[in-house]
């Protein structure tokens, strides 16, 4: 290329034009310049005709002529070294040859010459395109003025253009300003509808990057509340287009605009809905857009300044913190924004994603502590209200409605009753708090003060509440739980949270390893040992869950110390027995079939096995074994085993094809 002529330039222009024409559709479909560059960089992977393009053939031949000898020499040298054991593997050989070739003088000269030539060729193509565009713009200007002065669409086509027959939409600052004026709510309905139609045809990047966007944003926010649904429909269509085709710094503008719109409507009383009246959610397009963005935003915001992320987080927390005036008579029955979010994201996945990375978690927790602690207070209050409701129902020996099963059916539901809304919001609050307590900065938000409760609520109080939900909330035998119901039942959700706590040393030490939490776990056991009436839902399931958590606690040194000696080993009193004594005594009673409430239960063998495993976790150490020896647990296990073997010998040999299994066989297996 040292002798680059005008003929060479024309040839390269023709080859490059052919390549761009072939990938035109892919480039046009790219939402941004960066995406278009990515498409071209990975063209060899996505285009099966890549090696048939004349431009690619030309480059391959040029590279071969320039550095081909260098590649051959380096390949021979590396192959010789590989035979002698100095280089191993094909991948290493390729890496060595590539590295040496790129470091060679020939390669540097080739890249320098190629860059200079391509600059000339590309500049010529750009100039040609601009000439074609201006020529067509002049030809079309008269036609545009005749049929519509507000249409800003140019059809740029020319047989000589490298981008012929491509549809473009151009909007100058003056045209955008005119669009803003036409979208003002004071304008006639027809004018605004026409302007909205033009807005939907314009590229979102032009709109969001313009100087007119702040004013346009205000007009769009006001138009979302227009009685005519066509306005909100078209605006949401534009917002959806922006979400799907724009980078984070632009979609942030749309998200905060929608969040602000909802917040203003709730504050103004336009969305003054009551929980007791239920809710029809057949039209919640705005909320769906917010939910989708909340889940996708964390994958993008780390590549942008923190202020962008902070605006998104703050607008969300500001919306969720909207509450009625406490003195308002309808305040307890107010359907706040968090209910709408819970309907779309019942397990608070948005909060999990936002707190997953330290970069965003710091911002979220800082804003919660500084300005939006009411969001946490409301979540705690929701859990307390549900617990009191369940506890009252259990004490009255009445069954609590199982809204988890109703919500989790495969049938799509667009209408919810008041109690269903309360349950869904409770699940959302429970999952949010469970995620919050994982992190030290989240635990530092406690204790909190609730308006309707004396004293503050600490982390320990919250963990006691979670534990009590295991046996006071609706639950069913493990064999009867369906997959969907199990996913959303309070007992299942609490167990998920406690499992996460047990797996994290720092979190477990601050949340679980306390006497208060241990006492809450042992409450059903202590009641059975003392012979007092047990107010729990599904006793067997509760005992299995309690044993599961106790075994996980006992598996860790600090947790085992808690069970053996209590929270403070030095101040432990001999007259106040620690958890280990209650656990061993209860296990012995189980093995001797001395628990009347469990007599004849199909799950009794499972319960026995679960508590034997807890004891095993404790007597695996010298300290634990020393504590358990006085109870002669080994003798109880031996007697139970002999009894099981004796009973199993009386069972006839199973016949092939029989599908019934004796409960004695099940007990023998577990023992």
From TrEMBL:
Residues 174-671 form the BROMI middle region domain. It comes from the Eukaryota. Transmembrane segments: none annotated. InterPro entries: BROMI_M, BROMI_N, PHAF1/BROMI. Pfam families: BROMI, BROMI_N. Residues 12-138 form the BROMI N-terminal domain. One of its GO terms (biological process) is non-motile cilium assembly. This is BROMI protein. It comes from Nyctiprogne leucopyga. The lineage of its organism: Eukaryota, Metazoa, Chordata, Craniata, Vertebrata.
């Amino acid at each position: 290329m040292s002798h680059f002529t005008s003929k060479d330039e024309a040839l390269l222009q023709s080859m490059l034009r052919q390549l761009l024409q072939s990938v035109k559709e892919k480039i046009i479909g790219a939402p941004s310049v960066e995406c278009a560059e990515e498409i071209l960089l990975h063209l060899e992977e996505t285009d099966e005709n890549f090696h048939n393009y004349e431009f690619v053939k030309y480059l391959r031949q040029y590279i071969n002529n320039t550095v081909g000898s260098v590649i051959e020499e380096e390949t021979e040298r590396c192959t010789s070294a590989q035979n002698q054991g100095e280089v191993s593997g094909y991948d290493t050989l390729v890496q060595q040859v590539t590295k040496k070739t790129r470091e060679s003088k020939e390669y540097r000269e080739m890249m320098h010459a190629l860059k200079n030539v391509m600059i000339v060729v590309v500049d010529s193509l750009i100039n040609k395109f601009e000439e074609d565009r201006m020529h067509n713009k002049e030809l079309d200007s008269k036609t545009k003025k005749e049929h519509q002065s507000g249409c800003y669409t140019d059809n740029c086509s020319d047989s000589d253009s490298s981008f012929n027959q491509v549809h473009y939409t151009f909007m100058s600052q003056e045209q955008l300003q005119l669009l803003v004026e036409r979208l003002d709510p004071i304008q006639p309905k027809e004018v605004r509808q026409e302007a909205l139609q033009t807005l939907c045809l314009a590229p979102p990047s032009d709109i969001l990057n313009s100087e007119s966007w702040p004013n346009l944003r205000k007009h769009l926010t006001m138009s979302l509340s227009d009685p005519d649904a066509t306005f909100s429909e078209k605006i949401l269509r534009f917002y959806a287009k922006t979400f799907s085709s724009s980078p984070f710094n632009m979609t942030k503008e749309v998200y905060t605009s929608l969040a602000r719109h909802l917040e203003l409507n709730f504050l103004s009383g336009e969305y003054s809905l009551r929980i007791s009246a239920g809710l029809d959610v057949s039209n919640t397009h705005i909320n769906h857009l917010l939910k989708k963005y909340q889940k996708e935003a964390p994958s993008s915001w780390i590549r942008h300044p923190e202020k962008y992320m902070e605006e998104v987080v703050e607008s969300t927390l500001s919306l969720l913190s909207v509450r009625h005036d406490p003195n308002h008579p309808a305040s307890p029955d107010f359907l706040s924004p968090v209910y709408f979010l819970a309907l779309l994201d019942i397990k608070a996945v948005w909060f999990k994603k936002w707190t997953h990375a330290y970069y965003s978690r710091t911002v979220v927790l800082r804003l919660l502590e500084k300005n939006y602690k009411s969001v946490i207070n409301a979540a705690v209050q929701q859990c307390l209200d549900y617990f009191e409701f369940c506890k009252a129902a259990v004490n009255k020996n009445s069954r609590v409605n199982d809204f988890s099963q109703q919500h989790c059916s495969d049938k799509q539901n667009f209408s919810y009753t008041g109690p269903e809304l309360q349950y869904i919001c409770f699940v959302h609050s429970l999952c949010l708090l469970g995620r919050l307590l994982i992190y030290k900065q989240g635990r530092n938000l406690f204790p909190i003060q609730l308006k309707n409760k004396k004293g503050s609520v600490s982390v320990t109080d919250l963990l006691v509440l979670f534990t009590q939900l295991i046996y006071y909330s609706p639950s069913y035998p493990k064999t009867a739980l369906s997959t969907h119901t199990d996913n959303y039942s309070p007992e299942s959700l609490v167990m998920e949270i406690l499992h996460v706590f047990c797996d994290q040393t720092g979190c477990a030490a601050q949340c679980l390893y306390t006497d208060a939490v241990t006492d809450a776990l042992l409450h059903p056991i202590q009641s059975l040992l003392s012979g007092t009436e047990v107010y729990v839902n599904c006793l067997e399931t509760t005992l299995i869950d309690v044993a599961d958590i106790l075994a996980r606690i006992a598996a860790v040194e600090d947790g085992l110390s808690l069970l053996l000696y209590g929270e403070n080993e030095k101040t432990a009193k001999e007259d106040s027995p620690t958890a280990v004594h209650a656990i061993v005594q209860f296990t012995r009673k189980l093995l001797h079939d001395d628990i009347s409430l469990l007599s004849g239960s199909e799950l009794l063998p499972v319960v026995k096995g679960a508590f034997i495993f807890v004891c095993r976790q404790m007597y695996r150490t010298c300290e634990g074994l020393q504590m358990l020896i006085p109870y002669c647990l080994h003798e109880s296990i031996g007697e139970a085993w002999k009894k099981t073997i004796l009973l199993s010998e009386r069972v006839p040999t199973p016949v092939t094809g029989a599908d019934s299994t004796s409960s004695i066989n099940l007990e023998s297996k577990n023992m």
